[in-house]
Each structure stands twice: as structure tokens, then as C-alpha cells.
Amino acid sequence: MNAISPDLHAADDSQARLDRLSELSERLLSRARALGASQAEVSCSEESGLDVNVRLGEVETVESTRDRGIAVTVYFGHRKGSASTADLHESSLEATVAQACAIARHTEDDPASGLADAELMAREFPDLDSWHPWALEADAAVDLALACEAAGREADARIGNSDGASMGRHASLSVYANSHGFIGRERGTSYSISCALIAGQGEGMQRDGWYSSALAREDLQSPQAIGRRAAERTVARLQPRSLPTAQLPVIFAPEVSRSLIGHLLGAVSGGALYRRASFLLDSVGQSLFPNWLDIDERPHLRRGLRSAAFDGDGVATRDSALVTGGVLQRYVLGSYSARRLGLQTTANAGGVHNLRVSSNAKDLAELIAGQSRALLVTELMGQGVNAVTGDYSRGAGGFLIENGAISHPVDNVTIAGNLREMFQRIAAVGADIDTRSHIHIGSVLVDGMTVAGEG
């Protein structure tokens, strides 16, 4: 295998390149066995990308990237060693395997280390519709970014400045192989367009933006639509006020509500659990949410942002319930964390694959209309979440709702609570899903949080 292709988008030779990565993986596994490893695994990847940024009608940056990586992990019994390289010369590859073996010989035994069980390896590899190459050249990418920013700047006279617009495209090929005889191949593309604008003058300036991301170009919003949406959001934030401290219902808009599920995932992940650093220790079988709420993992969705036939250990993925009727059904485990906990892997080495949260409401407008006084959160700031206790405190911006309608923008407030209580107090989830994430969830109404502002 020689130099990486100039651009994985330029000519679709992806299958041939995956063949070469597979052959390389098998050679490295064979070398590891020859050096005495009882088990071994190899990850090989190639990536390419183009990112352009413009501001105030001028090009700021154009960046073309190409990358590759080879990672080798070997096991001598329960002793583990890893090494990596980007150099594909035979001498470098030989040295990488030898280094991994040397490291393994000097590490302590870890009874949980080793490959996932052979019988759990994926055997079916459906087409997940994740490969949509687009030979977008730099000039055309710049034109799209400029059109996006121009649409935003022209949408409202109060837009006086810009933080710029960007256009990006990326492609990746990867192979994971191990000494069970497993070889898994993946290829994927992704695209994004974004715009951030500034409205107002002096201390009254406000900034906001919008973006679109997808695996295929036809699923992107148009540059003009993104620019106009960025302008609408920015202008809507002008002349914000703070609020007196109070207990209020809080509505999380779809673009921020997924963070709540992110905190759940962090708390039920294997690493946090075996380290005893989670507020949800020993919570399987407990009611965490209202009894109408379900969360399901769907790893085989076509064109899903995190669709995969196998996880980072090669274990076959499958549809699986995380929460049913409000009750936590399982943790989120790879093979290592599962062994540490005395449990079975849930095929989540590397994370979850496409979560869908059930809804019991229509959309954000319906949630707003049902509130006499509440806070709509459209932006979250800071990292004030204690993973051990579940205490939650984050800076927020958004809008005050009065008598079923948006009253005025709000900033400089903090919303606080405890995640266990917040999960239980979810009164509604809308069907207005933000599809730019692998966590599919709509607007979320939490019935009662402390909103701390001025006074």
C-alpha cells in the first residue's frame, strides 16, 4: 500500500482501498501472532476533507486535509500493549507491531482485557447508506459559504456584523480486524454548512447562528435557508433581559434537549460505572423517567448518523431498548467495561448508535402555548454538571414565555436542578426532532427548575 489517495471524494475507488486496508490488517495480525501474541486487533483508517471559512464576503481559510492511521493492539494473556503509526513502510509497520508486543510484555495482568468473545462478532453487514461522495472543489465550496453568509447579512438591516460562514466535506474509510478472523469495513461521508451573525450595536450586540449537517449533499439545507435562519435567530435575541430567581417550567428547544440524553448516557456508560463515578449506579430496573417515555437504540437505520453493523470491538449491533416505560433496561457497555462489571457487552464499544426518544406532544409551538409562564432555553453554556451526584447548573439563554406566547429574549440566567429529579419531571417531549444528531429527540418540557437571574 502506497500513498493515500489525494481525495476520497475525487474518484470512488473506496472499495479497492478498503480491500487494501483489509489486506494490511491481516498482515499485521499475522505478524502479531508470529511474535507470540495470544490475541490481536488492528484498526486502519483513511480520511480526507475540505473546510472553507469566509467572513464579510472574503475568504478567510481554505484547508484541505488528508490523514491515515494504523493502530495495533496485542494481548499476551491478559497483558495488553498498543502502538500506532501513520507510516506505511514495511519497516515502520514491523516496528509498530514489535513495540505493541514489547509494551504488553511489561504491563500488569488485567483480567478484563482481551477481545470480545468470538461468538459475538458481527456476521452480517447491511448497506447502511452512509457513503455519498461529492467531488466539491474549493472554489465551489467558497461560493456556497459566501452565499450562506450573504443571505444572512441581507435578511435584516439589524445584522451589522458576521462571525462568518463555513462549508465542509469529509470522507473516511476504516477497517477493524482481529484474531478471531473478524474483518469489518466501514465507509462514510459527511457535509456541513454553518453561519454565525452579529446584530445590534455596542453592549447590545447579540450573536447567534444556524447550521446543517448530513451524510449526503441532498439532505443539507440550502445555504440561503441557513443564512436566513441564522439571521432570524440572531435578531430575535436583541434587547434581552434577565429574570428574578424563581421556580419555572423550562422548555429545552430541540437543538439543546439532546444534551439531557447525553448526561444520561454518560451516567450509564461502563467507564463511569466501574469507576463508581455515576449518580446512576445500580439503576437498571429503576424508574428514571415518566412511564410514557421510551428510548430505543437503532443501529441499522439507513443513512443514520451513527449507524453501524458492529461496534468498536467487532460485536454485532442490534436494536435494543435503553429505557422502556420510564424504566432503565440496561447500561451502555463495551466488552472491557462489561467484564469489569460482571455483565455482558451491549455492543456499545465506542458509544451508542442512533437513539430515538418517544414523544407525547406535537412540537415546540404546542409546548409554548400550554405555558402561562416558563423559560424557553435555546442556548446552554458552561459544564456545570456533577456526574457523581447528578447536580445540574448551567448558564442559559432563550426566551420568557408568558400566557402561551414568547414575551422577550432572556440571558444571564442559570438553570439548576438534579438530573434524577429533572428526568422524573419531564412532562412532555415533542415530535419536532432535530435530525442533526444521532440522538433523535424533540423539544422537552421539564416541569419545574430553579431559574436564577438578577435579584
From TrEMBL:
Which Gene3D superfamilies has this protein been placed in? Answer: PmbA/TldD superfamily
Q: What Pfam families does the entry give?
A: PmbA_TldD_1st (PF01523), PmbA_TldD_2nd (PF19290), PmbA_TldD_3rd (PF19289)
Q: Name one GO cellular component term.
A: cytosol
Would you say which domain of life the source belongs to?
Bacteria
Its GO biological process annotations read: proteolysis
Domain spans labelled Metalloprotease TldD/E N-terminal:
40-104
| Metalloprotease TldD/E central domain boundaries | 132-238
Q: InterPro entries from the xrefs? A: Metalloprtase-TldD/E_C (IPR045569), Metalloprtase-TldD/E_cen_dom (IPR045570), Metalloprtase-TldD/E_N (IPR002510), PmbA (IPR047657), TldD/PmbA_N (IPR035068), TldD/PmbA_sf (IPR036059)
Q: Where is the Metalloprotease TldD/E C-terminal domain?
A: 246-453
Q: Name one GO molecular function term.
A: metallopeptidase activity
Of which family is this protein a member? Belongs to the peptidase U62 family.
What protein does this entry describe? Peptidase PmbA
